[in-house]
Every structure is written in C-alpha cells, then in structure tokens.
Amino acid sequence: MGNSKIKEWQENELAQSLARFPERKKKFVHHGGDEIPRLAVPADIDGKYVKALGFPGQYPYTRGVQPTMYRGRLWTMRQYAGFSSAAESNHRYRYLLEKGTTGLSVAFDLPTQIGYDSDHAMSIGEVGKVGVAIDSLADMEMLFDSIPLDQVSTSMTINSPAAVLLAMYVAVAEKQGVSPGKIKGTIQNDVLKEYVARGTYIFPPAPSLRIITDIFQWCAREAPSFNTISISGYHIREAGSTAMQEVAFTLANGITYVQAALDAGLELDTFAGRLAFFFNATSDLLEEVAKFRAARRMWAKIMKERFGAKNPASMMLRFHTQTAGHTLTAQQIDNNIVRVAIQALAAVLGGTQSLHTNSRDEALSLPTEDSVRTALRTQQIIAHESGVADTVDPLAGSYFVEELTDQIERQAFELIEKIDGAGGVVRCIENGFIQRQIESSAYEYQRGIESNERIIVGVNRFEENEKNRPPLLRVDLAVEAAQIGRLSQVKEKRDNETVAATLARVEEAARGSENLMPVLLEAVKAYATLGEICNVLRRVFGEYRE
Amino acid sequence: MSETALLIQALADRKPRAIARAITLVEDGADCADEILSALDPERIANATVVGVTGPPGAGKSTLTSTLIAEYRKQGIRLGIIAIDPSSPITGGALLGDRIRMMDHALDPDVIVRSMATRGRLGGLCAAAGAAVRIMAAAGCSHIIIETVGVGQSEMDIIRLADITSLVLAPGLGDDIQAMKAGLLEVADLLVVNKADCSGADTLVMDLEGMLRQGGRNDRVSTTVATSGKGVAELMSRIAELNDILRKSGEKTRRRQQAFELEVLDWAQELLRPRILTKIGNRGYAATGDPRRLARELVDAF
Amino acid sequence: MTDTRKKRILIAKPGLDGHDRGAKFIARALRDAGFEVVYTGIRRTPEEIAAAAVQEDVACVGLSSLSGAHLRLFPAVVEALAAAGAEDIPVLGGGVIPEEDWEYLKSSGIRDIFTAGTAIGVIISAFDSACDDHYQRRGQG
To answer: Does ipTM exceed 0.90?
Structure first.
C-alpha cells in the first residue's frame, strides 16, 4: 500500500509543485556527496501513517502545506519594524530590503492601532513609540516612498482599524500605478484575540466581525493575493497561555471568523484560502514543533469535516511565526541571541511559511540596527548552514514528537469543544472564560520562575553583576510634536467639504449593510484622518469596554 | 479643630477623600471610628435608598451596576457604590476588580465607588459595609448600590444591609442555580434576568416566575441587557416604586431596625473576638474537656 | 488596631498599552501576600487613576507600562494625584523602563521602579515599605 500512496503523491501534488517552480538546487547533498532525501518516510507506509501524517501538501498536511517546503522556497524572512515617523520607518525598510529581507512588516504605534489621531488626548506620550504613527494617507505615502508595492509583500500588524489601513495601502498602490489585484501581504485583522490578550480593541465583537467579513468579501473580489487575516496565537501565548491553549484558542477564533463569513453569505472556498495564521515560537523546541504539526492537522480536519471545504487551499493552515518576546531577558542580553536561534529553529522544523526573529535588546527597548541585523542573520544561517531546510519535516517519526503532536491535538480539540458547548468564542470572551484560562496559565508559569522550578538563565540562575549597558534606541520625544504638525498641515491642505461628504458616506454604510471598503477608500483618498473615520464608526458601533 | 473634627466636616461637605478616609478608619477599627459614625447626619441616612445587587459570577452584575449608575446620573442623583469581593481565607488579601467595569464614572465627582473585601469576618460580609453605607449617605449620596458576588453566605448578609435586594441571574449559568438560590429567591425583592437577548432567557424568566408563584408572590421578573442598556430604565422605575411601597408601609423602617440590631451584634462579636482569643490563649487549653462548657465558662466570666 | 487592618493598593495601566499579563501577575502576587489590591484594568488616563486611588483610599499606587510611554504617563499620574489632593500617596512603576529614564522618573515623584525580571519578593517588599511609610505619616502607626 505504501508504495502506491507515495507514488500517488509524487505524481500529483509533488509533480504539480515542481512544475510551478523547481527546487532551489538541482541536488541536495551532504558534505561527502550523499544525497539528502526530499522526504524521509517509514519503510512500510501503512494506513495509520497516511491518516495521521500523510505527505506534505496533502491532507491532513501534518508534514507541511507544500510538497517541497523549503527545498522549493525558503520561508519569508519578515522582520517586524516601524517606529516613530513614516520617514524613518521608510529608511529602515529600505535598509532591510537591501540586506536581504524578502517581506516587509509594519508596526504601528498604539494610537494608530486604537484609531486615535496623534493629536488626541489619549495619544499623548504614545505617538511613534511602539511603531509608526499613521494619521492619514499622507503618512502612508511617505512610509512606502520608493518601495514598489507590486514587488514586495507587506504584513501590517493592525487589527481594529485594519479596514482603514488597508484602504490606505490600496490607495498608495493605485498612485504607484499598481492595481489592487497585484498587491501582496497580510493584515492581522484579528479582533477576537484583542479582547483576551492584546487590548487594542475599539468596537464590540459583533460589529467588529462585520468589518472583518466586509474585508474578506472585498479582497476576494479585488485583492485576491492579499491575506485578509492573520489569526493569531502569538499574543495569546505572550499573555501566558500554554502551547495547547495557544492552538485551541487560535483555531476556535478561526472557526468563529469562518462562521461569521458564512453567515454573511460568503462562500467558503472563496475566502478560506486567504486565511493565514500567526503563532509563537518559544524555547521548548520539541513541544513547539509538535504544536505546529498538530495545528495543521486540526485545521485541515476542521475545514473539511466541520465546514465541508472542497478546495485543498481552504484546508491548509499557513502561518507566520514570531519568536517569543516574553522569553527575552533584560539581563545578559546576548543570551537572547541563543534563545531566538532555538526558537527560530523550532519554527522552521515546524514548517512555518514566514518568520520574524526578535532582536537581543528587545526586552529593553525597540531594537538597534545592529541587533536587527543579527536577528536576520540568525534566519539566514538556519536556512543556508544548518541543513534543516534541505529535507521536509525531518522530525516526523520521532516517537516523542509524534506522541506530543497527538496529545496537543487531543487536548486542544477538547478545549474547542468546551468553548462550543459554552456558546462559542464571543460568549466565552464576554463571560471571561478565555481570559481566566490564560491568566491561570500565566500565573502558574510565573510562580514556577519565582520558586526556581523553572530556570531562566541569567535571571534566576547563572546571574551576573552587569555594568556595561548596551546602546539603546531612544525614540526622540520631538517625534510627537513633528507628527502633530504634519497632521495639521494635512488638514489645512485638503478639501474639508469632500472629507465631510466621504465621512457621511462611511456613517451611512456603517449603519446599513453595504460593504465598508469602497466608502473607506473614498474617505482615505480625500485625506480624512484615521481618527475621524474611527470616530464615525465609534458613533455607529459603540466602544467595547473591558 | 481636631483632625477627626476636620474629617467630619469634610464628610458633610461631600469631599471624596474624606469619605474614603472615613470608611478606612471604620474598616480598620480606628479609635476615632465611633466619633465619626456618631456624627453622621441621621436624616440623610434615613432618606437614602440602598439597593443590593447580588447574583452568581457571570450574570453581568458589574455591567448592570455601571449602566444603572449612568441612568441615575441622568436624573442628577448622587451615588455611592460599594463593591464587595471575598478575601482569600489563606492569605487574607483580596483582588478587587469590580471597579474595572465602573471606571467610566471615575471622573464623575457625584459617583463614589469603594471596593471592600470581606476580610473573613463572621457572616462573610464585613460589618463595616453597613457603616460605609451610612458614611456615604451622610456625605450626600441619596442612592447607594451594594454589589456582591452571590456565592455562599455573603448574599444572605446583603439582604439586611440593603433596603431593596435584587438578584441578578443570566441564562446559561447552569441549572443548579435554581436549586442553590432557592433561599435567596424567597428573600430577594427583585429578580432580574440579565443578558435577556441570549437564548434561554425566556425560559429562565418563566421558571423564576413559576418559583415565585409557588412561594406566594405574583411579581414579575425584570429583564435587562446591561451592555446595551435595554430594560435598565424600567428596572430603575421598579426600584423606585418598590422603595415607595416599602417606605409607606413602614417596612423600610422595620428592615432598617432589624439591620441595626444585627449590626450591633456584628460589631459586638468583632470587638469581643480579640478579647476572647486572648483569654483562650491565656488559659492554654489542652484539647480535652468539652469546648462548649469551656466557652460558657469564658462568656460567663465576662 | 484590630487584626483586620489591611494594606490597600491600586494597580493600574495608564495609556494605551494593553499588555496586562505583568500587571495581573503582580496584582495576584500582592493579593497572595495579604494586600487588598484594587485593579483598574487597561487604558486608563492619569486622572481616572488618581480619582480611583482617592476613592479607594489606597496607601500606594503601582503603574505598569510596556509601551515606552512611561516618561509622559508616570509623572502625569503623580501630578493628577496632587491635583486631587492626594500627593501623599506614593507611586511605584514597572514594566519596560530603560535605566536612563529612572533618574527623571524619580525626580518626578516615582518612588521605586522595577524592570522585567525583578524578583517578586523585591517588588512586594517595596509595596510593603511604601504602605508602611504612608500609614505612619498618616498617624495610623
């Protein structure tokens, strides 16, 4: 049976993949000349193997969503960046592109993430601190100055106001002569995790889901190469959850989004293929690898059995990974380089589609150029020197890893069932069930550190008395004033009558059921500010309260 | 003027810091507590309306309280809120998080919110809460809302502190609610089903009204959706109506009298406790003999 | 004094930063150490925090910030407390706070600062001593 199964795979999925693009090398060999197999499999492939593992690029995708994985294309090395002003961020992006990054990742400051303009009272002290401040299309134009949007893939970490930022991105592309159909990238657009792990929510869950499904619908038609959501477990893990909870809550959120889209009348296979995920990679390498594999298998089953997906693309869990911020220590920061290397390795062994590696100084402040470069080099060394990218899913068949994969899947499905039984994710957010689960795990983890049961090198063991403080990146306090100055200039130069008219259209659309994207596009093109647009939406949808 | 006299004056002047300090002093059993409490305006206290809000976790009490606050404020009513959470029996500490849902009102000078922990006192609910109510009333709060989690003993205690007690339930919190709350159902003045837009709400309302009828009561169950404010204005009217009825029939006075006596008992126990503990310590009882007899000897010796 | 006297503190997150894992942990740990902890959640303005601190008559306020906005927000809380007539309530701060900023923060009235990785025992002691000092100044001994 085994031989026929593998032959089937070779003649179908694998052949199709090789026809689309060849592997990176004609031959992959060890030093000495022995060929590295594309895929290691058991001597006799039985039904059990096929059901649980299968082949990469084939249901249930345990071994990867793509037949050749990194032999065909390496993962995207996507470093998250963005701080203070659009001009400085633009400079950093051009530096990274020069140094070999293959995708851009935009971090926005908190006021932008929460839909406040830089001159709002709540924005004081926060402008440009954790990311770039975007108040209007003018800032977006500066951010992507001289960066051809038909040639880069941009991931934007933006959630509640994602529709507005997406509209701005599309508008910038259009000005460059790039049609929406050509743009590539992702918006995080995952509001459900905000309520339980990250806190940058604006509107209550129901209207937020409406905005999200509007985005799905619009992009399916106009921007089919753009990923409309990055269903995130990263922040849930950062908030203190276990690996199993990270998978369970993320996939439960995914289920909620899919259901919301179906309820809004969309057809599953028209949007499901553009759903992407975002996971954490902590230092427990083996558990993380098992986690990624379990997640893939679970999502495939969920899409096929629960939602009846027909298109294989709908069943593939594609994900971006970021190494775990919460594991970075302020003490002996060079240790963090090692941690990140282990975590990045876990992500690669786990089959991630793109990866961000943290810089060593990120527990102290936003990273310096040097630290960022080392983080990027970490990925490049794994890709080109470690050999793990030359074969697919190398840890498959390990007794430990396979057992752990099964265990995580089993426990995660139980937790999802529990959430289903309690009325679904939104209900469990409203009554605090999910928050309590995460808090509990977080507390236990921290207590473990306090009691020295869990060793953190340099923190509760192998400590040093450190005198040398490395150079840190300081965000210039004048940034806020400059941004506010730019904002008032934009407001002066634009046609305020047109702005008012477009805002009225936004309100009308929000109160009704028409898709918000077209009216948002008009508004951003008229240089309505993010805050103005979000205020209209706040009026219509209300604000979420903890 | 002595510091205490200044504090009493500031209380009458409705200064938030003074209200807060006074409550702490009474909670901590400070020497000046008696002086402060004796100086409170009895008329303001008598005229205040005290509403108790209790119910199981997850029913949305805090959100409902916050919405009630907003509605009362529209009428220009000055409010005091006491949010009670349990103290850890092991560590003695407490996490007081009810305030989170009321922070919308943090900058409103006419809304005073105080979080209190049960501090493991007899009866569960701290006797100081009764004093806190009086302090707030004397400081000009015409309406005071006391919110507690309805688990264990504390909700029976809240009955006597409040003029009107409302029990807040919500659909989907488990069938054992009804069994558990049977005692509370009889004693609560108002039943509220919150999250009335969720499935199971109608059934819950019917079940509760059925139970009320069995107990000889014909009143209806109020329904609310605290997050949207639906039904809250109606709830407020019911509270006002009920308050009127209780006042006119003399029932309000009777309940306050009973509460007064129980509070005296509570404070007496509070004050006696350390003295009794000292005596027990002094006697160095071996674990022999009958505890009850030993206690009687001890008490008679007082 | 009876044995029921407790140390009351307030833990708050000023500004837009929504990462509350650290603040929640500290709140719980302080509860486990016997404090009464009023936790006011995320996204609070300095004025709201000060108003809550006054109403709850706390002996100490703890602030958490991971977004780099501490230079503006922590002193703002100290100012808001003073404006509310509560300049006597000490303020402690924690989170992602570079050492270069400590001097400025201390001169702005922040009593103690804790960065990531500080042992919880140290933090609890600091709250303890801040509360003790506060109660002593108030004459509650």
So the answer is: yes
